[in-house]
């Protein structure tokens, strides 16, 4: 597996033809949100025309940082009316001020398109970022160039489709011990949305399983769900129960993907080939929560990276 990953580059993962949507940092936040919706995307790289360089990724993390801060420090409604009327560059400055430069730093990570998949997996597993832009330089002018953005999912789909044989793929999750099985952050249907958002930030996680009093998994609230609050500007929804907020999900919402400890990496790869999954919730035969296997856990496993214990 490792030699396979070292023989391929990030560039190999890119489709033959694709489109790339990049926002100028002078674009208004409101327009950027509309452009995300219109193009059916949830993030985009930013470009500074002034400096002629990449200026970070705009992701749901930006909106989560702001929502969390303004919820505790000011009127969210007012704050967002103000935020929507300023430019993306200014949004970054505000974020640096409120959450600190270190929290904003991961959005500035980038990678060379010719980096090996081994290095890409390692970087994504260590940094926990879900996507990374590929940056190159124009040979003649030396100007920075955004080639594409690769995601954890795209890399894993490439591996799942092209890596054919290995004994390790036939081992079960209980043998491989991939994922998190202790101190899982959960919520109930009645937990207010803002409390779940606080869990995302405090534990640096992208999903919280929603369970009943018997720990049976009912649903999963994801960071991506926060995007619909930011898009619609319905910040009052931060106080409503998460169960109610999830009712407003689009009809084509892909749903929750679960697996058991008996599932093999092979069967997980099969799911990844067929569906756009971001994580699998590990349950027992009664659908009770046991653990979470995030894509970063699988990428980390493939390159032998284990997250240091908190
Ligand atoms: P993710 O944000 O999904 O890429 O996950 C980052 C790390 O946090 C991985 O090691 C996951 O297994 C772990 N993780 C994800 N969701 C939770 C959760 N609700 N509680 C505890 N750990 C989690």
Which features would summarize this protein structure in a list?
310 residues, binds adenosine monophosphate, CBS-domain, alpha/beta, 2 domains, three-stranded mixed beta sheet, single chain
Report what the structure shows.
The protein is α/β, with parallel strands linked by helices and 310 residues long. The protein has 2 domains: 2-161, CBS-domain; 169-302, CBS-domain. The protein is built from 15 helices and 10 strands. The protein has helices at residues 2-7, 10-13, 29-38, 60-73, 76-84, 88-99, 101-104, 117-127, 152-162, 173-176, 193-203, 223-232, 242-247, 265-274, 295-302; strands at residues 23-24, 44-48, 53-58, 131-137, 144-151, 207-211, 217-222, 258-259, 279-283, 289-294. The strands form 4 sheets. It has a 3-stranded mixed β-sheet. It has a 3-stranded mixed β-sheet with strand order 8-9-10. Strands 4-5 form a two-stranded antiparallel ribbon. β1 (23-24), α3 and β2 (44-48) form a beta-alpha-beta unit. The structure holds adenosine monophosphate.
How many helices?
15
What does the radius of gyration come to?
Answer: 20 Å
Fraction of residues in helix: 40-55%
N- to C-terminal distance: 28 Å
So, CATH architecture of the largest domain?
Roll
Q: Tell me what portion of residues adopts beta-strand conformation.
A: 15-25%
Which residues form runs of ≥5 with pLDDT under 50? Answer: none
CATH superfamily of the largest domain: CBS-domain
Major beta sheet summary: 3 strands, mixed
Structural class: alpha/beta
CATH-defined topology of the largest domain: CBS-domain
The gross shape turns out to be globular
CATH level-1 class of the largest domain: Alpha Beta
Query: Got a strand count?
Result: 10
Structurally, the number of domains stands at 2
């Amino acid at each position: 597996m490792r030699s396979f990953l070292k023989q391929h580059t990030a560039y190999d993962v890119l489709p033959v033809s694709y489109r790339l949507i990049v926002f100028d940092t002078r674009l208004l936040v409101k327009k950027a949100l509309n452009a995300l919706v219109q193009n059916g995307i949830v993030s985009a790289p930013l470009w500074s025309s002034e400096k002629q360089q990449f200026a970070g990724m705009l992701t749901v993390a930006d909106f989560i940082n702001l929502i969390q801060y303004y919820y505790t420090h000011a009127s969210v409604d007012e704050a967002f009316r103000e935020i929507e009327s300023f430019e993306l560059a200014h949004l970054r400055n505000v974020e640096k001020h409120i959450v600190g430069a270190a929290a904003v730093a991961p959005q500035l990570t980038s990678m060379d398109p010719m980096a090996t998949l081994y290095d890409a997996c390692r970087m994504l597993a260590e940094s926990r970022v879900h996507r990374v832009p590929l940056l190159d330089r124009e040979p003649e002018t030396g100007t920075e160039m955004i080639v594409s953005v690769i995601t954890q999912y795209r890399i894993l789909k490439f591996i799942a489709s092209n890596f054919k044989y290995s004994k390790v793929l036939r081992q079960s999750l209980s043998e491989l011990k991939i994922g998190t099985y202790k101190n899982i952050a959960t919520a109930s249907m009645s937990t207010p949305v803002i409390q779940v958002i606080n869990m995302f930030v405090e534990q640096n996680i992208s999903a919280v399983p929603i369970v009943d009093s018997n720990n049976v998994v009912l649903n999963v609230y994801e960071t991506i769900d926060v995007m619909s609050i930011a898009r619609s500007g319905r910040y009052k929804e931060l106080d409503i129960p998460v169960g109610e907020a999830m009712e407003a999900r689009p009809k084509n919402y892909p749903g929750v993907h679960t697996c058991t400890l008996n599932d093999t990496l092979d069967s997980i790869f099969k799911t990844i080939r067929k569906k756009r999954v971001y994580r699998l919730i590990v349950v027992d035969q009664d659908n009770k929560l046991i653990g979470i296997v995030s894509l970063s856990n699988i990428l980390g496993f493939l390159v032998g990276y284990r997250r240091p214990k908190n």
